[in-house]
């Protein structure tokens, strides 16, 4: 019995390591590419439009397929979908690194987005299966989220080092050994989730969901370059609204819908999704805006820019572990609310930052934002795992991560329109963006207090 317990505990730790590896390289890829853009442009001799799509193609595929990926995880088992996603992502990363032109690179980035979308909902479902005990699960989720957040913030620094030493291909090829290790660990140690094979595929719902999320993402991405009132942007939003309405109508009538609308009767799911959207709106938008601010207003190099983000990322893992302990002891509402409060304070502090501000004056607001986000992220994931039934864990995770991804895309689009290198005063745009991030964050704080009447139990209620 003791030997079985030790073996089971070891397998759970390896499963945590495997899912964290998958989430790490996915999050790393979100930001690491930004510092390599100039080298990619020079190396492949491509124009600015193609260069933008090197970044945006990944985001577009990732955001569009998260809901479908969550449903596939529930139907075919989280381990199978996670391994498939990890394999696709690893293969696509190698293809990116070996690309000789814009077409192959952009197509490979789309394939990376497909792999990432398959991995994220299934990784959270795997954690739920590997750590069925609520308090252990809360700690595991905090580690999973902490390593991913650290990777997200470390992206500019890692990218700067790899590009300077080995060239732009290295930021993609480095994913191959990580991917091989993660796939092996998952197959060898991760437990599978219950497969709901009798569930029929909701092809109409999946098609409408992909069109809605793709057109919404495309419109937001293009708004930074074309403007929010351009015909193609407004058309994209209009299509997203129409297909989104059709999606809801189809789901309401389908016997086995892609997205069971009853999920949204669960206050925990709603609050977690809103909180996740606001977290990524501010954090992703800030990363994008501050990267431009450092390089265009302060004239820092890519490596110096990466180093400037270190105060925000250095404490992420510690804060995530603290969040896990707070969640295990007090429930998820406390770290969720406290984290959002700290993040809002950090955003507001950026109003006092200018191009000639000292390193300390810039580091303190970034540090506050980093701690706040790191405290909040594990709690929203833990909340969803604890309050959604086993048959809907994958799709609920897909909903949460879709909300977060949409928040990130909108944040980058809005912040990008406010902080552009051609503006005479980049700092003024940064100040407006920071205030907007604080307002969105504080708005989500209100939903936490109104929507969560209790501290947030970690014992699953089987909802959904």
TrEMBL record:
Entry's Pfam families?
MFS_1 (PF07690)
Annotated membrane-spanning segments are 12-33, 53-72, 81-107, 113-131, 143-162, 168-191, 203-221, 227-250, 271-294, 306-322, 334-353, 359-380, 392-418, 430-452
Q: Which residues form the Major facilitator superfamily (MFS) profile domain?
A: 15-455
Q: Which keywords has UniProt assigned to this entry? A: Cell membrane, Membrane, Transmembrane, Transmembrane helix, Transport
Where is the protein situated, by its record's location annotation?
A: Cell membrane
PROSITE patterns given for it? MFS
What are the recorded GO MF terms, alphabetically? Answer: transmembrane transporter activity
Please give the GO cellular component terms listed in this UniProt entry.
plasma membrane
Q: InterPro entries, per this entry?
A: EmrB-like, MFS, MFS_dom, MFS_trans_sf
Q: How does it sit in the membrane?
A: Multi-pass membrane protein
Which family does the record assign? Answer: Belongs to the major facilitator superfamily. EmrB family.
Q: What is this protein called?
A: MFS transporter, DHA2 family, methylenomycin A resistance protein
Q: Which species is the source of this protein?
A: Paraburkholderia lycopersici
